């Protein structure tokens, strides 16, 4: 094969794979907006891991309050937390005026001072699960935001809960 023929073959390969790896600077078909909050969650967990275990506030107990959801509107939140060190587990329930928007399940995460990072796993397979990034305002008050994952609508919102 001559030098000119090699260049032609390589040009044909390049043309055939123009869109194989990149498309406008991003991977084709990759839903980056779905993963954005996961990155925020992972960074929050990493930062929490750097804080000392003595700095972790105790979430153990029942917490209730309001949520403002981008799809379902205003609703109520109920969390029941158990905590060992900085590790948090428990249950959650979101309740709205329209019952089809209600959701709940189990949760796990990490609590530091003042940051909290949670993953809310839906009990029903077709329902959305969420990542939560929140902060303690004081010992009995938490505010934060949440974003859905594994969900077609990708609702998000804010929460404001108090220890009962």
CATH architecture: Beta Barrel
In whole angstroms, how far apart are the ends? 80 Å
Report the major sheet.
8 strands, antiparallel, barrel
Structural class: alpha+beta
Task: Please explain how this structure is put together.
With 164 residues, the protein is an alpha+beta fold. The chain has a single domain (32-163), classed as Beta Barrel (Lipocalin). It contains two helices and eight strands. Strands 1-2-3-4-5-6-7-8 form an eight-stranded antiparallel beta barrel. The longest helix is centred in the N-terminal third of the chain and has 19 residues, at 32-50. It starts with a helix and ends with a strand.
Task: Map the helices and strands.
Elements: H1 3-16, H2 32-50, E1 61-69, E2 73-84, E3 87-96, E4 103-111, E5 115-122, E6 129-138, E7 141-149, E8 156-163
What would the keywords be for this entry?
Lipocalin, 20% helix, 164 residues, alpha+beta, eight-stranded antiparallel β-barrel, single chain
Q: What's this model, at a glance?
A:
By secondary structure, this protein is α+β, with helices and mostly antiparallel strands. It has helices at residues 3-16, 32-50; strands at 61-69, 73-84, 87-96, 103-111, 115-122, 129-138, 141-149, 156-163.
């Amino acid at each position: 094969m001559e030098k000119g023929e090699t260049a032609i073959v390589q040009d044909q390969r390049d043309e055939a794979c123009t869109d194989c790896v990149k498309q406008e600077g991003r991977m084709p078909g990759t839903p980056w907006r779905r993963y954005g909050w996961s990155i925020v969650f992972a960074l929050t967990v990493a930062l929490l891991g750097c804080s000392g275990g003595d700095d972790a506030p105790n979430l153990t107990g029942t917490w209730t309050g309001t949520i403002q959801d981008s799809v379902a509107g205003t609703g109520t939140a109920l969390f029941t937390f158990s905590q060992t060190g900085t590790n948090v587990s428990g249950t959650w329930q979101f309740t709205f005026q329209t019952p089809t928007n209600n959701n709940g399940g189990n949760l796990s995460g990490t609590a530091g001072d003042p940051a909290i990072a949670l993953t809310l796993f839906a009990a029903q397979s077709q329902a959305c699960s969420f990542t939560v990034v929140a902060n303690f305002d004081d010992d009995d008050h938490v505010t934060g935001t949440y974003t859905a994952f594994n969900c077609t609508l990708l609702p998000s919102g804010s929460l404001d809960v108090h220890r009962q």
